[in-house]
Design brief:
The complex is a heterodimer.
Chain A: E1 2-5, H1 11-24, E2 28-31, E3 48-51, E4 66-70, E5 85-89, E6 102-108, E7 122-127, E8 143-146, E9 162-165, E10 176-179, H2 183-195, E11 205-209, H3 228-232, H4 239-251, E12 256-257, E13 271-273, H5 283-286, E14 291-293, E15 302-304, E16 308-310, H6 320-332, E17 336-338, H7 346-351, E18 354-359, H8 368-373, E19 376-380, E20 392-393, H9 400-406, E21 414-415, H10 426-439, E22 446-451, H11 455-465, E23 469-473, E24 482-483, H12 484-489, H13 494-507, E25 517-520, H14 526-534, E26 539-542, H15 544-549, H16 572-575, H17 580-604, E27 618-620, H18 623-629
Parallel strand pairs in A: 1-2, 2-3, 3-4, 4-5, 5-6, 6-7, 7-8, 8-9, 16-26, 17-18, 18-19, 19-22, 22-23, 23-25, 25-26
Antiparallel strand pairs in A: 9-11, 10-11, 12-24, 13-27, 14-15, 20-21
Chain B: H1 12-16, H2 23-32, H3 35-43, H4 49-55, H5 60-63, H6 67-70, H7 75-85, E1 101-105, H8 109-120, E2 124-128, H9 137-140, H10 149-162, E3 167-169, H11 180-186, E4 189-192, E5 198-199, E6 205-206, E7 212-214, H12 215-223, E8 233-237, H13 241-250, E9 258-262, H14 274-282, E10 286-288, E11 291-296, E12 300-311, E13 317-321, E14 327-330, E15 333-336, E16 340-341, H15 345-350, E17 353-354, E18 357-358, E19 372-374, H16 377-380, H17 385-403, H18 456-464, H19 480-491, H20 497-507, E20 526-528, E21 549-551, E22 554-556, E23 560-563, H21 570-583, E24 586-589, E25 599-603, E26 615-618, E27 630-635, H22 640-649, E28 654-658, H23 677-688, E29 696-700, H24 706-714, E30 719-722, H25 724-729, E31 734-735, E32 738-739, H26 749-773, E33 787-789, H27 792-798
Parallel strand pairs in B: 1-2, 1-4, 2-3, 4-19, 6-11, 7-15, 8-9, 8-15, 9-10, 23-24, 23-30, 24-25, 25-26, 26-27, 27-28, 28-29, 29-30
Antiparallel strand pairs in B: 5-16, 11-12, 12-13, 12-14, 17-18, 20-33, 21-22, 31-32
Classes of the chains: A alpha/beta, B alpha/beta.
Chain lengths: 637, 809
């Protein structure tokens, strides 16, 4: 047993020592914890840590296989996302105890705060005292055991798992119900209590999901999406508008589709380069496009051969084969790929040279092991297609295999939570970022993904919170499934987003590219990329365009799960149609063509480095583009 | 990337078709059952469409984007289906209108196509054909079991009927019956389309010449009706379509027991169409690969084995002989099908034909004689029917320029007519697999067709599989051009600078402003600002966002009221009432719907309030008769200011802002679109009087969706009235000219009531979703600060600030 005294060392140093001790197989004791945050975060060895006092936020968070014994109380999110391991808390726990755990045993001898076990996937969370409101909200699996009383809305919107309460239940939440408990279950619970030496002789009531909201009822009719061009013909009540009304009259709910904004909005093709670009066969060898991304706080940055990334898209929305093709293409072109919401699949990790791992509100597929394999970590706050809402994945795509990697029950219409369970404000976010840095030894860049809304405010907060870079997604950003109305009407256009973002950074005195903005949402080619960079973006990300290069036909029926090209599907018969090697080559050539285009433009504008592009290189061709960007208006029509 | 033109991309199948057939357009017509239209599209640039439906080598199919996933669309078989349907379109005949004439030698696909185009252009055309029949290799080179006589006649008769001015001289061979000098004398230009009709000699040591025949000659004899006596074992040498046809014809002849094909390279190198190779194999013909013949004896062909060597300049692999690999294959007859060449003593004598080909420039088709042009297989080597047709089109194009005295015309390119019809909405289109027509094989002998046609159902399903690469995508961001350019970027070699530049110069083009000056203000051009980092603290889970709406004493489940059904049929009003009651909504109109639906009585001047009503709404500002319930007034652009002040003075509960073309009128929502400025004006007026809380503002006009509802609420409305959209939900037909009635009903009475409640529920949930996105727990907490304009016009009318920055506005 090694003793670490937090009165004389930082948590960061203590955690580093704990990792070393874990590797060496030695246990540790923490003195004077003083309710500090992140104690023991990121341990992945079978070490026992005894905390002599109270711990702050995320004690034992993002660990795998360790045992923690805390003498007194813990703050928010004790045991956050533990894969396996044990946490015993001698006193009380704050809110979201056992958040997103994937297999731990957490024992809280005292009371626990609200929303305990939110989005947990597996494992057992035991509270020997009383639980505050909404325990088990949005849980996907595992069990919560409350020996005392439960507060209001127990099991609110839970999807799977079981909640056992021995004391009273103030009220059940939406879509939760009480059912009988079997003797086997009672025996299993007693076993657990005995193992942890908890005396108990009461009776349990059992609460599970009531199953009224897991699936949409009337399915949407199968229709190929009509084009806007056709819709704009035929007046106000055109075919598209009529179809929407008729479908809603059948289903009684919003329509769901894939892709991004379908109607025209002001975009990069409404601005132009001031100078005409003359062709030069050797432009590529005459300009520099390479850059690094994410070293604002001293982490090891991503090294990009050009200012382009693959946008976050999940395994789930996309087939495994498509994720592999994106990974291969990104490696061949020397850029970075992104896991999106669905967890990291091993083949994707192997293929992608540099991979960003995304953390979302549902913590689907999120875990410390994969975090440590990633090249960068990204906190998703929202996306351009549906900012303010969580992800959606329709039941036809939630296969058993996919459900397993996400840690959820198969066959549900998956609607991820809109907000992170443990990030309710900008200040929480600072603590969350710190937790991620602790879990990855401060070695990986941490970015934030934002859908463009109140961009100026959001970017200022992101800058203050210390993110290494921002992935900013405009209104035109695509998705695998979302409400068509939200896709069309929530968020500001990509063009406006970058202008607002750069203005905000200037206002807080940020240096150029101190916190680079990676812009996405309708970036189609090297021309859009060069314009975005001239407006101040550090880089761009391509999602839809890469998919189109790799075989997508833009029918926008990604939600249905029967993608004709095998891209947006989990159906093996349909995925079989996708030829990973061929499409990886196509995506790679598309990226190379983007590179060629950017080089031709940079060179054509008389510059030698893509970072020399600036606003002075651009003019606005429409009154809208001039109003949105403040670029000089030039009427070329 | 073949034939890709970044400035005018066509679907890959169309780009791959040598005559530019708009394949997706005819597939769509098949799916819709409009076979006449399908016929029209197919025959637009293809005079031998019936023939192609049977035997085209269909380069469109390998180009199809579905080819690599679950199989290309069965384009050729679908063409046959249309041509077999017989719903032809008779195009009016075109008679000669010009004095100049053209003599065409050879009535194969290139000669006849050129003849057609020149005749359509008004020239006098005479076609000279050595054999007794028109059609060239289509008649003599392809066996009847693949291409029946009637099919050939169909196409040729259609062509001649359309071009009655074409003079046909059959049994007229160049050199035998007529000389080139005579043709030059007679015509203003001569086109040599003589084809490649002579089989190349197989270089073979042989002392039994009667046991060796060339494939073309063999097929010609069989097609002429001969049934030569055959030995039991036949060997065909060669790997092209002629070899396949010869082998398949041979195995249908009496006395033949086995037919084998000997080919010097491997399967991958075979030039024959995959479909034909599969057909031959399905008929029991064995293909012996990597084998080359060296000597023919009485009853065996001595062969050697080969292996592939280096690729030559033409990309084809050379082959090398494997030493000491001599072996004998038993056979009684060898059919050599190793290629064809042109043959004509007269042309050879004149020096126009050398080494088996007419010497002509591939771009201008000119020969060394300024009056003589050449096209087709005789000039450029053995090819396909569809390529020969392209040559014919090209020849006619260039000859027209020549005869009109235009030097250096722009290079010929196939027209790519693109109809881009609506998408076929077949629910199964993603899942349907490729099917081919039933293969009959040998069962019907020499003259029976080897393949059947599609049934109507199968044809429709196969047509539904089309991905519709030609169609405008539903997305303006990734529209057709953007999509095709992105695809091209993914196919271009990184170092292919010319193509990279061609694509870039297209991508650098900017678009026509989608928001031209003077356009209307639109709710579509307002967007919501979602809650992100700045409003994280509010967490309305899932669908939890309140929609309940209170207007004075009236409580509604959602901020939705119905209006405009006073003239609707009684059964529609009854079903509407059922739906509205179930939804907790209300009705605004002259007469009550009944069924316990709260009724806001529209009260024209002089009318009396009804005791049944929940309140009255004056159609125009004025004195209010005595009433017990809710009090309100309809205000329009002209009555707003005075009317609103008066309503406040009268203590009214609500004002209906009529942003339509006349609430209650037939065309209320079928005019110039919503007058969005009205709402902002009303709210600013109330704000200036500091009386925003004293009266409910209810919007009427052109509300389609929950997004519209949410935006109007954010702009200051307390509720909105649905008219036309609700009528559509109830099953009303409508066109730009207005509602066209509810007949015939698409649903039962209960179904219609449910459609109403479903539509209201959908709009309500959409509005709630918008509110959640902005971080609100009630739709009534939406506020103007949640909105931004994305167009100047909408900003001007609604006064919602523009998105963006850098002091653009």
């Amino acid at each position: 047993m090694v003793t670490l005294d937090l009165a004389s060392m930082s948590v960061r140093d203590a955690n580093r020592r704990l990792r070393e001790l874990g590797e060496a197989g030695e246990d540790a004791e923490i003195l004077n914890p003083d309710a500090r945050h992140h104690i023991g975060v990121g341990l992945v060895h079978p070490i026992t840590v005894r905390v002599r006092g109270s711990a702050g936020y995320f004690c034992a968070g993002l660990t795998d296989g360790a045992r923690f014994e805390i003498d007194s109380n813990v703050g928010w999110g004790v045991g956050d996302n533990i894969y396996n391991g044990t946490v015993v808390v001698g006193g009380n726990a704050g809110a979201v105890a056992g958040v997103a755990i994937r297999g731990a045993e957490i024992v809280i001898k005292g009371n626990m705060g609200s929303r305990a076990g939110q989005v947990m996937k597996a494992g057992t969370l035991l509270c020997c005292g009383n639980a505050s409101f909404m325990a088990g909200t949005m849980m996907y699996g595992g069990r919560i055991v409350i020996l005392g009383r439960s507060g209001e809305k127990l099991g609110e919107d839970m999807t799977g798992g079981e909640i056992y309460v021995a004391g009273g239940i103030d009220s059940l939440g939406t879509d939760a119900m009480e059912i009988d408990i079997s003797s086997d279950e009672v025996a299993s619970l007693q076993d657990f209590l005995d193992r942890h030496k908890i005396p108990f002789n009461g009776h349990f009531r059992k609460v599970v999901n009531a199953g009224t909201k897991l699936r949409y009822t009337t399915p949407e009719p199968t229709l190929r999406n009509q084009s806007c061009t056709q819709a704009s013909v035929g007046g106000f009540w055109n075919e598209k508008t009529k179809e929407d009304i008729e479908v809603k009259a059948v289903t009684g709910r919003y329509r769901v589709r894939g892709y991004g904004t379908a109607r025209a909005v002001p975009h990069f093709n409404d601005i132009a380069f001031r100078k005409e670009i003359a062709p030069d066969a050797d432009a590529l060898s005459k300009v520099n496009l390479a850059m690094t991304l994410g070293d604002r706080s001293g982490a090891k940055p991503l090294s990009l051969s050009m200012p382009v990334l693959i946008a976050p898209m999940s395994y789930g929305a996309l087939s495994r084969s498509t994720k592999l093709a994106l990974g291969i293409a990104s490696r061949l072109s020397g850029i970075a790929e992104n896991t999106g919401e669905g967890g990291m699949i091993p083949e994707e990790r192997a293929e992608a040279g540099q991979l960003i791992f995304q953390c979302l509100s549902g913590r689907l597929g999120w875990n410390v092991r994969d975090m440590q394999k990633a090249d960068a970590i990204e906190i998703y706050i929202s996306q351009g297609a549906k900012p303010g809402l969580g992800g959606q994945l329709m039941a036809s795509k939630v296969t058993p295999e996919l459900a397993a990697i996400r840690g959820i029950p198969p066959g549900i219409d998956l609607r991820s939570p809109s907000r992170h369970p443990d990030v309710l404000g900008a200040d929480d976010l600072v603590i969350k970022i710190e937790e991620f840095r602790e879990a990855t030894g401060y070695a990986k860049p941490i970015s934030v993904k934002l859908g463009a809304g109140r961009v100026k405010d959001d970017i200022k907060i992101a800058f203050k919170d210390g993110f290494d870079f921002v992935e900013l997604d405009g209104l035109q950003g695509s998705t695998g499934a979302a409400s068509a109305e939200v896709i069309e009407h929530v968020g500001i256009p990509t063009l406006a987003a970058i202008v607002e973002a750069i203005e905000a950074l200037d206002e807080v005195g940020a240096k150029k590219n101190e916190m680079p903005i990676v812009l996405m949402g309708g970036i189609k080619d090297g021309v859009d990329a060069a314009k975005a960079i001239a407006l101040g973006a550090g880089a761009v990300a391509v999602g839809t365009a890469a998919l189109i290069a790799g075989g997508c036909i833009s029918c926008m029926r990604c939600q249905a799960g029967y993608c004709v090209t095998g891209i947006a599907t989990q159906n093996p018969q349909h995925e079989k149609r996708y030829r990973t090697d061929v499409e990886a080559g196509n995506i790679h050539r598309f990226l190379e063509s983007m590179r060629w285009q950017m080089a031709a433009i940079v060179h054509g504008l008389g510059k030698t480095d893509v970072r020399q592009l600036c606003r002075d290189d651009l003019v606005a061709l429409t009154p809208e583009a001039a109003a949105i960007t403040g670029l000089p208006f030039e009427d070329r029509s | 990337m073949k034939n890709f033109d970044p400035s005018n991309p066509a679907s890959p199948c169309q780009a791959a078709c040598p005559v530019g057939t708009d394949v997706p357009a005819y597939l769509d017509a098949i799916w819709r059952g409009d076979f006449k239209r399908a016929f029209e599209v197919i025959t637009h640039s293809n005079p031998f469409a019936s023939i192609c439906g049977r035997v085209c080598d269909a380069p469109c199919e390998p180009a199809c984007r579905r080819e690599e996933s679950d199989g290309a669309i069965a384009i050729r078989a679908l063409k046959r289906f249309v041509m077999d349907k017989g719903e032809s379109l008779v195009r009016p005949p075109v008679h000669p209108t010009r004095l100049q004439s053209v003599g065409i030698v050879g009535a194969g696909p290139s000669g006849l196509t050129a003849a057609q185009d020149l005749a359509l252009a008004g020239f006098k055309v005479t076609i000279y054909e050595a054999s007794p029949r028109l059609g060239g290799m289509m008649v003599w080179g392809i066996p009847r079991f693949r291409l029946p006589d009637g099919v050939i006649d169909e196409d040729i008769q259609r062509l001649l009927a359309r071009c009655p001015g074409i003079v046909v001289a059959t049994n007229t061979a160049l050199g035998r019956d007529i000389s080139l000098s005579a043709l030059k004398e007679k015509h203003d230009a001569v086109l040599l389309a003589i084809g490649a009709t002579k089989g190349k000699r197989l270089d073979l040591v042989s002392d039994v010449a009667d046991r060796l025949i060339d494939g073309v000659a063999f097929l010609k004899r069989v097609n002429a009706g001969e049934r030569p006596a055959m030995p039991a074992h036949v060997l065909v040498v060669g790997g092209g379509d002629v070899a396949m046809d010869a082998a398949r014809a041979a195995c249908r002849l009496p006395g033949v027991e086995t037919v084998k094909i000997v080919y010097r390279r491997g399967r991958m190198e075979m030039p024959a169409r995959k479909h034909e190779i599969e057909g031959a194999e399905a008929e029991g013909i064995e293909i012996i690969f990597n084998t080359v013949p060296i000597a023919l004896k009485e009853d065996v062909l001595t062969c050697q084995l080969t292996r592939l060597g280096e690729a030559g300049a033409d990309g084809r692999h050379r082959f090398e002989i494997v030493t000491a690999s001599d072996h004998d294959i038993p056979c009684g007859l060898v059919i050599a099908a190793i290629g064809q060449e042109a043959a004509c003593d007269e042309l050879s004598g004149l020096g126009l034909l050398k080494n088996g080909w007419i010497a002509a420039d591939p771009a201008s088709l000119a020969t060394s004689d300024p009056k003589v042009f050449a096209c087709g297989d005789g000039a450029f080597g053995g090819s396909s029917i569809v390529n020969a047709m392209r040559q014919g089109h090209m020849a006619a194009y260039l000859l027209t320029a020549h005869l009109e005295g235009r030097a250096n015309p722009p290079p010929f390119r196939t027209a790519h007519p693109m109809a881009r019809p609506m998408l076929a909405n077949d629910p199964e289109w993603e899942r349907l697999g490729r099917e081919m027509p039933r293969f009959v094989g040998l069962a019907k002998g020499l003259d029976g067709e080897v393949e059947e046609g599609f049934s109507d159902d199968v044809a429709r399903a196969q047509a539904a599989r089309c991905l519709r690469c030609d169609a405008e995508t539903p997305s303006k961001t990734y529209d057709f051009l953007a999509r095709e350019h992105i695809v091209a970027m993914g196919r271009v070699a990184p170092d292919d600078v010319a193509t990279q530049w061609a694509i870039l110069s297209q991508r650098l083009k900017t678009r026509v402003n989608p928001f031209p000056a003077g356009g209307p203000a639109s709710l579509d051009d307002l967007v919501f600002l979602p809650a992100n980092l700045s409003r994280l603290v509010i967490d309305p889970y899932r669908e939890a966002c309140r929609t309940q709406t209170k207007i004075a004493s009236l409580t509604l489940n959602a901020p939705l009221i119905a209006a405009g059904f006073d003239q609707a049929p009684q059964d529609v009003r009854r079903d509407l009432a059922d739906g509205l009651r179930a939804s907790g909504s209300a009705y605004l109109g002259l007469s009550p719907l009944g069924g316990d639906v709260p009724w806001l009585q529209l009260l024209p001047p002089g009318a009396q309030p009804s005791s049944e009503s929940a309140g009255v709404v004056l159609t125009t500002p004025g004195p209010l008769p005595k009433t017990h319930g809710v009090k309100g007034v309809v205000l329009t652009e002209s009555t707003l200011e005075a009317g609103l002040v008066q309503a406040l003075d009268q203590g009214f509960d609500l004002a209906v802002l009529d942003g339509s073309d006349g609430l209650g009128g037939d065309l209320a929502e079928f005019g110039q679109g919503p007058r969005l400025g009205l709402l902002g004006k009303a709210i600013r007026l109330l704000r200036s009087l500091n009386r925003e809380e004293d009266i409910s503002i209810i919007w009427f006009g052109y509300v389609r969706s929950g997004a519209d509802v949410a935006k109007l609420l954010a702009m200051g409305a307390n509720a909105v009235i649905l008219g036309a959209s609700l009528a559509i939900a109830l099953g009303a037909k409508c066109g730009p000219e207005g509602l066209l009635g509810f007949e015939p009903p698409a649903r039962t009475s209960a179904g219609r009531a449910q459609a109403v409640s479903h539509f209201l529920a959908a709009l309500s949930s959409e509005a709630a979703m918008m509110a959640r996105c902005t971080g609100k727990t009630s739709v009534h907490n939406l506020e103007p600060e949640d909105l931004r304009s994305i167009t100047c016009r909408t900003r001007q009318i609604t006064q919602m600030p523009m998105t963006g920055g850098r002091a653009g506005l």
